[in-house]
Every structure is written in C-alpha cells, then in structure tokens.
Amino acid sequence: MRLPPWLRKPYPQGEAVHNMKAALRRSGLHTVCESARCPNLGECFSKSRLTFMIMGDNCTRSCRFCAVGSEKPLPLDPGEPRRIGGFCARLRVDQAYEPLHVVITSVTRDDLPDGGAEHFTRTVGEVKRQNPKAVIELLTPDFGGKYEALDRIAQAGPDIWGHNLETVPELYHKVRPGADYRRSLKLLAEVKERRPSVLTKSALMLGLGETAPQVHKVMKDLRDVDCDLLVLGQYLQPTKTHLPVAEYLTPQIFADYQRRAYSLGFKRVTSAPHARSSYYE
Predict the structure, then answer these.
(1) Of 20, 87, 103, 241, which shows the fewest CB atoms inside 10 Å?
(2) Which of 53, 41, 39, 52 is nearest to 14 (CA)?
(3) Domains of the chain
(4) Can you give the pLDDT at residue 252?
C-alpha cells in the first residue's frame, strides 16, 4: 500500500539531526526514535527532543509491529542512568523552553527478576539529581505482571507514567504475542493506586484491522482505570517482515476519535496520523 499524501514526510537529515545522533553515540545511549524507526525523528531531533531507551536495544519479546531488535539482551549498564542525567543537562542548554521534558522508555526485559524496575528507578533519580526542575515521563513495559516492581519507580516520583495498550484486545494474539490486554490495564490501575498524583498515559496504533467499536471500547476501558492521557496514531510497517498495514486512516477519522475520547473524560488527547507515544504537538 502506497503512503497517502498526509503521511509523507521528508527523510530525516540536516546538521541538527546528525549532531544529535553523533552525541548519542558518544554517550553510548539509545533512543526508541532510532530503534523503532519513528517517522518523526527528523522533526524531533532538530528540536533537541528525543525518547531515551534504557536497558539496551534488544527486547525479550518479538511484537510483530515493532522494529526494535529481539536478539539476546546484554547485561544492564550500571553507568547508563548517570549518562542519561548528564545528557539531559546538555539538552536543557540546547532547548529554548522550560521546563525540560525528559521521556524514558525501555525494551522489555523478561530475563530480569524485576523486569528492570530498579534500573528505571535509578535513571529517574539521576535525571532528577542533575536536572531538578525536569518533568519526567516514563513509558514502561508491563514487568510481566509483577506489580510490586512498580513501588520503587513510583517512589522516585515520575510526573507522567505511560504504558501502551498498542491495539485492541481482539488483535493481541497477532500483534503482541507475550503481552496481555488485561494485565496492561491493571498495570495502569496499579500505578494510579500507588501514586494518585501521577498522570497516566496510553497509546494505540490504528490501521491494523481494528474496528471503530473496538477502539471505543478500549477508550472506555482506559477511562475505567482512570487513565488521563491518550495518544492515537497510524501504524506504519517498519520493514517487510513486520505486520502489513490493513488501512490508512484519514485525518478526519483521527479527529473523530479525538472528540470521542475527550467526551469520555481524558484530560489530553493527541490523535493524528503521525502521533506517537511521546510526540510533541
């Protein structure tokens, strides 16, 4: 399927993009922007915006929509949290706005006893230590349903805590083998219980074969666990070996979903073809 006009974007290039990539390589850091082949990379890197991906760049799951590698992951890098804190300090100088907004996600690490929760906690702590006024947004995996792993992260004090449902439950067997829809919903509920002040967030990729009633039901399920923020974006096939696109949704359909979501009580809804979990409008 050829990309419709509203989805076409120029190839990410330019001095700012090159400089950001070079700085990340020097620091030994990964971003989901690069690993997941995000279509917004050029736009975001040119504005010194990025989403750190901690715990390596190989995931222990093989979701059929995701371009992140699934080879055997390496041991955790104990110096990574400190380097991310330092990198954020440099971003604070580069960015022309305050406060600094830091987004941290990770690969899924089912090989670790706590799923990597302690590493998340250390990373949040280092970012705060070196950037006391930063707003910290997390996008975490489900930690294999080990909800006790959430306690330490919650105590570290993130401002926004995201966990993506990604698609409707009817497509989980095809799109997210190894994940569980109800487990992910419960994680969002558990986060809210542990830290009521945190803004919880989730996202869906559309165009995988879901129906509008199915999407409406997911929205309601999210509101039932008091999820505050929602992102809806178009699924794009990262390589020929990944799931094909079933449908390209028009901007009007995304606008309709946005109105529906706001009517259900979400505090903020980003719904557009290029929207992604940590995308800045």
Answers:
(1) 241
(2) 41
(3) 5-271 (3.20.20.70)
(4) 98
